[in-house]
């Protein structure tokens, strides 16, 4: 029929209305179909026909049936759906952890508080067995809480693994469905002359929306209405009609966690860290940022509690007097150390490579895991990084000889066996399993070690205010505790002044001796608490044990002498070396030059100026067997460093000098105290000591039968004897006048003579003397006739014929002077202006000190001494450890002579000091590099989870609102409105009826026309 006929126009309208009615009916039928988009019929006017009266219409045509959609809104809904499901999944999981940690019935806080409360009860009654049993019960309750929390967290991890299995399968299924839809859509599009198959497009959009619930997607439109779908960092999940797969696989480095792998052509690519959004993204975010942190935080608290309680407990004594063992299980048991390392499944090194992780310092532990990588080239380079931030905490090169230790953040990784290969990776988890590794190791309440292993007390005779405020064992594996039931050796601290003290071996309380190594002249600060013993594990001590150090000479010297009497030390060069513990680089300080005769005091001062070195010096000699003849011309006189010790003229001085009297005299002299010189007596031996290392010079003046035995610190002895007398002042002429001289010729023969403090006297000779003796007598007569007391100056002639003047008195107080000698007198007797003094004749010995050098860890001392036994130091002196394994703290202001003893606490069953030490852990900041307590650390983690839960709740509600807005917007555009559709049905029905009426009229007209020709 002609298209421009009335019938054709009616038919076109009928067909258009029919299409609209059918489409509207389709809309109504799919009102509740998920993802359905309202469809609309697109119509247009048919091409008009030209007639003589112009163009006339030919009716209507149906162009297409289209979906009513807004691609931007659809994409936004997809995005909002992904965000909401991510946050909803995160909130669901974190809420469970928040309830677990904050609940009083399951959380750690009440358990920790109850455990320390039981320790308080034990400290109040340390001998009570029931109270001790309560401590064990509370400890077991606490470990049960750790185990419960750890188990619940691990169970949550297992649930996440199962959810990853399910969701990965769902993603794969949806991807396959989308690819299949692409295929069907492409086929339908090609068959429909590129018209879109609307219902198939809706079905694919719904699959994409469901996919966005699981993971964030990026959809790219392609030809023939196909789409490509990408996830993660651009991984192609769907390309056209081909779908790749997402699998959950065993963790590459962590077998307890599932990873997600993208599978393309049977090749797996781990995309766990690349995926985000949707339920998968929420699960992964929760696992990484909450679950892992919670497990590590709980584990860190458990390890800190167990390690620190164990450490303190091992230092105390139980009710049976035995050292406490492990209170909790060993955090570094073999099983625990191996469980902290997991090898990457792609490692090339194989199962024979074994690593272990030991906890060194719980205070430095973090709440993260680590990766130990060997990036190559070669297997020597390693990099240790934090898993949470990727920060490098250590890197370097490992030696070829195993085992090898790599330390950081409070733990040490030991490569024990095997061969690591380039590209190998190991997961290091120092704290992850700490919650389940803490178990009570006590079997009987009597085994709890509440008492301290050592005790200290002040001597009853102390005169100062010093007091012992604390004694504690630090390491019972040292030699100090290797003899059961005793301290080896017991110790006495003896103050040598208000600010210095010695530490002595008190095995024989009546005669303490040096420790090995010696610990003398240590510094004390009055008025504050002082830790009295060395407390550095790596510290060593070197003593000057050379051939000359602190030794007596073979023979005393007679003085006055032309040269001073010295300690005999010769030139020596000392070198301090240091090996850096991190880099292993050796460095040497400039050499310290010891000059001939230099005192130990000065040498110590020079050594102390070097970094890493502390030096002290002391000098000691021992005097015994005093002999003092009761009758003799000279009294026995002792001097110390040029200062008289005794006073023979004193009425208080005993006829026979003895050690007690001499010690009291020395200690009462402020000059010696100012020099740091003290004396001690046990009744038989006088010990003289310079606490600063000054040389000790002892001189003896007296009769030849006066004396004593002098002994050095090495046991070498020397018999000291009196020199037998003093000398007068003597002045001698230089000419031989044994044949006499005539003083009547020439002249005048005069000179001035002065004795001591008497007035000057002019002496004149004017007689003819025929012998030298006569000259001496004439001069003697002149002197006796002067104001100089008769006989105080004696004139004689020696065997060489020289005339000399000599004082009758002897000693250094005798002063004789000749001056104003006339030329004639000089010519006659050879006298010239001069002066002379008497001398105190004595025997003298100087002893040098020894030097004690304390070297910090990594430092050493060497000498250039060439003799077999060295000079002051040996060429390579032995370095001995100073660490005793215990400490004593003294407060107040002790005085010289005060003593404090330290002994084994063998009878201290009522002692609670070790219990108090364990109790102190509750409030000590021993977590996170000393910034928080254990309770604070756990509280921070609970607070973090709680705050994160609250924020997640807010975020989830906000994202849900946004998703609902996007859904409403999409429904407003693409959704089916039944009221609108009902109105359209009526409208299209009327149009359909009208078109039918047009057809009817056309038919009637046609019939009329036909009937006209009948």
Structure explained in plain terms:
- With 1014 residues, the chain is an alpha+beta fold.
- Among the domains are: 6-68 and 975-1012; 341-431, Immunoglobulin-like (Sandwich), CATH 2.60.40; 730-839, Sandwich (Immunoglobulin-like).
- Helix 1 runs antiparallel to helix 16 (978-1012), helix 3 (108-124) runs antiparallel to helix 4 and helix 4 packs antiparallel against helix 5.
- The two termini are 22 Å apart.
- 32% of the residues lie in helices and 27% in strands.
- The model has no long low-confidence stretch (mean pLDDT 90).
- Strands 28, 33, 36, 37, 39, 40, 51 and 53 form an eight-stranded antiparallel β-sheet that branches. The protein has a five-stranded antiparallel β-sheet with strand order 13-20-15-16-17.
How would you briefly describe this protein structure?
With 1014 residues, this protein is α+β, with helices and mostly antiparallel strands. The strands form 15 sheets. Strands 28, 33, 36, 37, 39, 40, 51 and 53 form an eight-stranded antiparallel β-sheet that branches.
| Biggest sheet descriptor | 8 strands, antiparallel
Q: Could you tell me how far the N terminus lies from the C terminus, measured between alpha carbons in angstroms? A: 22 Å
Mean pLDDT: 90
Number of helices: 16
- Overall strand count: 55
State the shape.
elongated
CATH topology of the domain at 730-839: Immunoglobulin-like
CATH architecture of the domain at 730-839: Sandwich
CATH class call of the domain at 730-839 = Mainly Beta
Sheet/helix structural class: alpha+beta
Rg over alpha carbons = 54 Å
Sheet-strand content, in percent, reads 25-35%
Parts with pLDDT < 50 across at least 5 consecutive residues: none
Helix content: 25-40%
